[in-house]
């Protein structure tokens, strides 16, 4: 009786897709805990994640997610039925985008950032879709979609993996088409859901998260550029990082071309004596390379 009540409660709170994810997570967790070497590796990974989250960008990310969530809750949008969708989006939508920015912070443009946001938003949309398939079908599709998504992220790191990336993209698109078909079919059968406000809140969560997380995503791009400049120039001089940031901001503002120029000519910044010297050298580098000062 208790087991039946638990199943009934899960069906009310989670879709079959979300239930399948929980089941796969539980299976993976149990497997990892039984294997000593994997358990030790998992422990190291958890410790590494905690260390990363305790650094400035990690703390900014967590703070922003909490503030955005509290704001959405305050205005009456993020209610109990939507909180789990917001959490899913933060994990499976936001983190892959940030990972891409970290690996391409020198070259990625605003247009590419927006493209990444739209591309990875397919994943959370897939997870939180109201109209899902049977639990058995979801148990099969979930690991396939996860492996393909991970494959896309890894293939982005090297050009020679482009062919493999195309295959992963094809599979993701095929899964997305199936998802759309099931969603439309489920919507037609349950057309009266249009009268329920919860339906519209669930549909809007993807758009809300995309728009809401854009400032955080852009922040990571600028942070990585300025952090690298501060670290590399700081290593070559005795200047305080804050001074380096301010002088760099004065000359470059948020122009990626200028910031990358400094990084590519970092050897021009040995033995900086003071902030005036740094200011002068930045101007010289920018004049020499891009003829802008």
TrEMBL record:
Keywords on record: Membrane, Transmembrane, Transmembrane helix
Record carries keyword Membrane: yes
Segments traversing the membrane: 20-36, 48-67, 87-105, 139-155, 167-191, 203-226
Protein name as it appears in the record: Uncharacterized protein
Record organism: Romboutsia sedimentorum
């Amino acid at each position: 009786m208790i087991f039946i009540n638990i199943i009934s409660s899960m069906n009310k709170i989670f879709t079959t897709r979300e239930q399948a994810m929980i089941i796969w997570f539980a299976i993976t967790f149990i497997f990892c805990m039984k294997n000593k070497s994997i358990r030790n590796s998992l422990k190291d990974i958890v410790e590494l994640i905690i260390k990363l989250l305790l650094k400035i960008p990690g703390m900014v990310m967590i703070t922003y997610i909490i503030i955005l969530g509290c704001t959405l809750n305050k205005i009456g949008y993020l209610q109990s039925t939507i909180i789990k969708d917001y959490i899913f989006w933060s994990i499976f939508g936001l983190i892959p985008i940030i990972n891409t920015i970290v690996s391409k912070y020198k070259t990625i443009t605003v247009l590419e950032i927006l493209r990444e946001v739209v591309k990875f938003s397919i994943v959370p949309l897939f997870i939180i879709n109201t109209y899902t398939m049977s639990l058995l079908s979801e148990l099969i599709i979930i690991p396939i979609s996860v492996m393909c998504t991970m494959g896309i992220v890894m293939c982005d790191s090297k050009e020679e993996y482009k062919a493999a990336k195309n295959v992963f993209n094809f599979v993701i698109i095929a899964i997305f088409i199936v998802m759309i078909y099931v969603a439309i079919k489920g919507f037609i059968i349950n057309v009266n859901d249009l009268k329920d406000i919860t339906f519209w809140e669930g549909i809007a969560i993807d758009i809300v998260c995309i728009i809401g997380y854009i400032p955080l995503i852009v922040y990571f791009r600028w942070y990585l550029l300025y952090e690298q400049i501060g670290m590399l120039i700081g290593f070559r001089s005795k200047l305080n990082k804050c001074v380096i940031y301010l002088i760099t901001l004065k000359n470059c503002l948020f122009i990626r071309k200028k910031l990358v120029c400094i990084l590519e000519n970092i050897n021009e910044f040995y033995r900086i004596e003071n902030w005036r010297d740094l200011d002068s050298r930045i101007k010289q580098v920018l004049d020499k390379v891009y003829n802008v000062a």
